[in-house]
Amino acid sequence: MNEKYLFSLMSVVLLFLLAYAGVEVAGLQVLFGVIIPYMALIVFLAGFAYRVIQWAQTPVPYKIPTTGGQQKSLPWIQHAAIDCPDTKAQVVGRMAMEVLLFRSLFRNLVFKKEGDKLAYRMELFLWLGAIVFHYAFLVVTIRHLRFFAEPVPFFVTGLEKVDSFLQLGLPVVYMSGIALLAGVLYLAIRRIYVGHTRYISLASDFFPLFLILAIAVTGIMMRYFTKVDIPTVKELTMGLVTFRPAVPEGIGTLFFVHLFLVSVLLAYFPFSKLMHMGGVFFSPTRNMTCNTRAERHVNPWNYPVPVHTYEEYEDDFREHMIEAGLPVEKKE
Amino acid sequence: MQKKLYNKNVVIAGLIILAVLATFPFWYNHGKAAPAPKPELTEKAKAAKECIRSTAYMKTEHMQLLDAWRDTVVRDGIRTYVNEVGKEFDMSLSNTCLDCHSNKEKFCDVCHDYASVDPYCWDCHIENPKENE
Hints:
The complex is a heterodimer of chains A (332) and B (133).
Chain A: H1 3-24, H2 29-56, H3 88-101, H4 103-106, E1 109-114, E2 117-122, H5 125-143, H6 154-163, H7 175-193, H8 195-199, H9 203-225, H10 230-241, H11 253-268, H12 276-279, H13 310-324
Antiparallel strand pairs in A: 1-2
Chain B: H1 8-22, H2 24-28, H3 43-48, H4 55-76, E1 80-82, E2 88-90, H5 93-100, H6 104-114, H7 121-124, H8 129-132
Antiparallel strand pairs in B: 1-2
């Protein structure tokens, strides 16, 4: 047992119970269904902008030519344009591959003992888990626009068609829901069971995983098992996005729990490691051209330093030096 | 002291893109109200008072019920459904459900469209024959 993940797990359980009791016992539907979601969105947007502006105000004086390939050099040496970009367009290419394909995670290695040798081997499961999780989350998020748009836009219905093409069961099973659950479970279990990963994991690493797990589980419960009345739920969400907030009768408590956990995620986002969403664009090792040979980069912090050269020193003390028999550059 | 914002144009553009995407539902709907639709009952359905199960059950479970019906009829050849009070029904979407709810467009479709649900029931059980007559 480890207090870091237990603390995170207990926090999520407490948040769950807070929303459940708040709606079921105290009848705070308006608080959990209207006020908290609005506040969470405001905190998310303002907090996100605040963090990004803080980062943008931080000078990055040095070129950090971290590279995974050959820098642009002589014409007969092949240049690795994506791994060691020379122009802004190539930097955009590297950044796009980083954001869309998690390219540097793909290079992940594991250091292990094989027989009596130590060796580096490819380790793709973290990359696989991450990419499954992130894309499933994206698809699930876009699918949720069916609750926030009337009429439902074509890309949402199109995505629903693709996502449910296995036509399993009714209500039809969405693959992205299962992929999201599998991805977040894998990432959480990896952190707990891989010793050296657990050692460097903090409560702030576990909390978002457990929170997203709880969001996915409550969502799946509502869709396939305990059920909520979907048109009434949409009436509430449409009320929120058209600024006519109202809480219609007859929505299951689990919906308010789900909405509360999502609001917690939104409000927590800007102040947590989840800000890697914005932060990836500020990675100095990813967003700089690697043209340190082609161009000279002067530290923008350089300021004129008062110096006293040897020549000036000799000018000050020449007579005394000659008198003491010390060698001098200029004799006069 | 006013701090310098490095790469100002890119940073501001990025933040604007985020704000536009995150507030998509707010500007897409132009604040137009969209209350939940009220499915319309036919005279026959009104006269029957209750469906084969309670309204709350039918609201949330009708799809699973129909899915189970399909499997029971196709795989086991059983065609009679007995509800919790012992009343018997023919397990048939076209002959039982759509007999009362013969107004598919104003009963089934209003909620399905609102919730962006496109059941593949209608792939085979094409437009209710009674409605087309």
